[in-house]
Design a protein that fits this description.
heterotrimer, A alpha/beta, B mainly alpha, C mainly alpha, A: alpha/beta, six-stranded mixed β-sheet, 23% strand, C: mainly alpha, 11 helices
């Protein structure tokens, strides 16, 4: 699924204050592309994801998915949140099956129940948590819970996967392993992924392109094309090319080697 | 004779120490209860009290055994009234909570009054309810229902308002309609808070039923205690108190069992 | 076990800087309940016109207003009579409850011997004890039977919350104090006690509501003085408007007591 963001601005108004979260954001994400959005905390990265998913409307500008303007949740999107957001009253398996139940209740399920159950088992196995199929979320560690929620986001085979700092709460080792697993799943089920993070090596390792955002109000400072070969391997993290991309991204953010914060339009 | 498949016969060594250990762990409690009965016996023996003031433990046991059929019947009455009131008050409280949740006007306009009347002792309404509903079953059901109503309403609303917003966002990202969102996400997520209301509500319902029975005095445990008082049968009073205490504890345990059954997935958070 | 109920208070009304244009929300917060109150009064009157209720069953709002305006002094005087009982019961009950809480927290023997009994009594309808209490304690004197029942109800929430507060101190804090050579008394005074204050205050708020329940219950069941007894008098002469007026007065005093305690709580627990 292709995404086009057309001069998007977003302003939040609460009782006490007005916050300009995004200002004039334009970007294009190609079909089957893996894109990361990186930037400092509170730069509107998460807001951008919510705009793409249709959960919140932009104040100005428009979002197009495959050329159709978004005006509400589309349903064929997988969303992975910062926290696992599992339904604690359901077993792991029933959590993964939840999107099917919702689609079935709307008579929009693309396949039968059995087919979905088979998919669910396959996904859980792929994520390495098949022995916890009948466990409740509270019995799982944070990392395993997040894997369940990724399986859940993939069960209805969405053409677009939106991930909001999904590995932010994990330790470094688990994070790297999850990165590799995510890429493996992505290779097996080609789809567009928009991945929000504030972890530079993670963004570089996963993505085809990395968008760098500025502090509030969030604008796109620039993008780094990651032309490393796929499939990516853990060994690549140590390569000069990888580190070059990391440094390039750091500079774009304004970190490292004393670089000034770059102007709004680095091009 | 089948010996090997019967666990009770096969493993007396397994349960006997467990029971003994349980008794040993509760030794302080057992001693306290034992001391209380001992003091009671000594008071009766050497205190020269009139039986109206202090009956012997034997007399109380006698009243418990002698009146067991009446006690059982009236206990069932109280329980029946409590369940009716609980169902009625609980459902109304639940429905109004959902109404208040979805309507900002109701929330602003009605909630302050709900909150205000929560602080008023429900027993103050009893004379008014007697005028409206007479001295039959209704007034007791209404008294029980009133207690449950406020508790379930407040706890359900609390639960609905504190549902993790990202769960709701997740639902919306699947394009769920509000009715489906309420049924599949909001209400299950609000269940732990609701169940606190249910657990406390069922106990309050029993209290209010007993209070109403003591005033209306036609049946139930409250009626029995008032009648025993009129007959100056203190042994019966204590017997009714013991039965009521047991019923109270059982009802609370029932509430807890329901809570555990419905929200077992919520407790004992695992830390990753 | 009781604190979770009290988190059910409405969203905190912290002072928020007023923003021009957004004040509509804040005005509606006061206007909507008023609108609702007016709607109720109108609906009440309309119901009487349509169904032609006898004033004994449902007196028109005007009659209730007449009672409030002509007998207001009498109502408030009776309420103050009740309030004296409520406050004494609240005071003694909370004090004993706090002491019991401290003893149970710090003495394993006391905990094992008494806590299970207290927890059980907490869920028993305490109204059932009244007849026995009157036989043993008699009516009148000081503290009279009403104060004793009120004490009984005020006791439990304070005990439970004191235990929760005192035993909730983080182990790190205890270890820190011990590593600095602090004595047990020092630990209690400087760490556990301040830490438990918010819990105890929340318990006191519940105890106040329970005290109202206790006093009103005895006044209605064994009428002599106080507003509960005046309600029973009114019921005897079918003076329904007086009952409704009295309920409103109780509600106002109950809310006042609740908010007073909440205000004290906020003042004392700013750090929490």
């Amino acid at each position: 699924m292709g995404i086009r963001l057309d001069a998007i601005s977003k302003v939040f108004e609460t009782e006490d204050l007005t916050v300009e979260a995004l200002r004039g954001v334009s970007a294009v994400v190609n079909d089957n592309e893996f894109v990361s959005i990186i930037g400092p905390s509170g730069c509107g990265k998460s807001t951008l994801l919510r705009l793409i998913s249709g959960l919140t409307p932009p104040t100005q500008g428009s979002v197009f998915l495959d050329g159709v303007e978004v005006d509400g949740p589309m349903g064929n999107i997988g969303f992975v949140f910062q926290a696992p957001t599992l339904l604690k009253w359901r077993t792991v398996f029933k959590n993964v099956m939840f999107p099917y139940e919702v689609l079935a209740s709307q008579r929009k399920a693309p396949a039968g129940k059995q087919e979905f159950e088979e998919r669910a088992r396959k996904l859980l196995k792929m994520a390495g948590i098949e022995e916890f199929t009948d466990a409740y979320p509270k019995q799982l560690s944070g990392g395993m819970q997040q894997r369940v929620s990724i399986c859940r986001a993939l069960i209805h085979d969405p053409t677009l996967l939106l991930m909001d700092e999904p590995f932010g709460a994990l330790d470094e080792f688990t994070r790297e392993r999850m990165n590799e697993e995510l890429l493996r799943i992505w290779h097996e089920t080609t789809k567009t992924v928009v991945f929000v993070t504030h972890h530079i090596p993670e963004a570089v390792f996963l993505s085809d392109r990395v968008f760098v955002m500025s502090r509030r109000p969030g604008t796109i400072l620039g993008e780094v094309t990651i032309d490393l070969p796929r499939p990516r391997t853990p060994k690549m993290r140590e390569s000069v090319e990888f580190l070059d991309r990391v440094v390039e991204t750091r500079h774009l953010i304004g970190l490292g080697s004393g670089a000034e914060l770059l102007s709004e339009d680095p091009a | 004779m089948v010996l090997r498949s019967d666990p009770a016969l096969r493993a007396p060594t397994a349960w006997l120490p467990a029971v003994l250990r349980g008794l040993w762990n509760a030794k302080e409690l057992i001693l306290t209860l034992f001391a209380a009965v001992l003091v009671w016996i000594l008071l009766v023996e050497f205190g020269d009290f009139h039986p109206i003031v202090l009956p012997t433990p034997a007399a109380v046991v006698g009243a418990l055994v002698g009146d067991w059929s009446i006690l059982a019947r009236e206990t069932l009455w109280s329980f029946y009234e409590m369940l009716l009131g609980f169902t009625l008050g609980g459902s109304l409280g639940f429905l109004l909570a959902i109404g208040i949740f979805y309507s900002p006007f109701l929330h602003r306009a009605v909630y302050p009054f709900v909150f205000g009347f929560r602080v008023v002792p429900k027993v103050a309404f009893l004379p008014l309810f007697l005028v409206w509903f007479g001295i039959g079953l209704t007034v007791k059901v209404v008294m029980a229902g009133t207690a449950v109503f406020f508790l379930v309403l407040v706890q359900t609303l609390l639960g609905l308002m504190t549902v993790d917003p990202s769960l709701v966002e997740f639902g919306k990202s699947l394009k769920m309609k509000e009715a489906s969102l309420l049924r599949r996400i909001r209400i299950p997520a609000a269940l732990p808070a609701m169940m606190v209301g249910v657990k406390m509500g069922i106990t309050y319902a029993l209290t209010n039923v007993v209070v109403a029975e003591m005033v209306v005095s036609t049946n139930g445990l409250g009626f029995l205690v008032v009648r025993a008082r009129q007959q100056a049968r203190t042994d019966s009073i204590i017997a009714v108190i013991i039965v009521t205490a047991v019923v109270g504890i059982l009802v609370y345990q029932l509430g807890r069992a329901v809570e555990k059954r419905t929200t077992f997935w919520y407790f004992e958070e695992h830390s990753g | 076990m009781t604190t979770d109920l009290d988190t059910a208070a409405p969203p905190s009304e912290e002072p928020v800087p007023v923003q021009p244009g957004r004040s509509v929300e804040r005005i509606r917060k006061f206007v909507d309940p008023a609108v609702f109150a007016v709607l109720i009064v109108i609906g009440w009157q309309v119901v009487i016109w349509i169904f032609d209720f006898h004033p004994v069953v449902l007196p028109p709002p005007s009659r209730v207003w007449t009672v409030l305006s002509t007998q207001g002094d009498f109502l408030v005087e009776s309420m103050l009579d009740s309030l004296r009982t409520i406050l004494w019961g609240f005071f003694y009950g909370s004090l004993l409850g706090w002491l019991a809480g401290v003893a149970i927290t710090y003495s394993p023997t006391v905990r094992k011997a008494i806590h299970p009994i207290l927890v059980s009594l907490f869920v028993v309808p305490k109204a059932i004890f009244l007849p026995l209490l009157i036989i043993w304690w008699g009516v009148g004197g000081f503290p009279d039977h009403k104060i004793v029942v009120t004490m009984l109800l005020a006791f439990f929430p304070v005990t439970e919350n004191t235990i929760a507060g005192l035993s909730g101190v983080e182990r790190e804090m205890v270890e820190l104090s011990r590593s600095l050579g602090g004595s047990s008394l020092f630990l209690f005074r400087k760490i556990a006690l301040p830490f438990s204050i918010p819990f105890v205050l929340a318990g006191l708020r519940i105890a106040m509501t329970e005290s109202f329940i206790g006093t009103l219950f005895v006044e209605i069941l064994v009428p002599n003085e106080g507003i509960g007894s005046r309600i029973v008098d009114a019921q005897d002469v079918s003076n329904t408007q007086f009952i409704i007026a009295a309920i409103l007065v109780i509600a106002i005093f109950g809310l006042a007591a609740y908010f007073l305690l909440q205000w004290i709580e906020r003042r004392l627990t700013k750090w929490y």
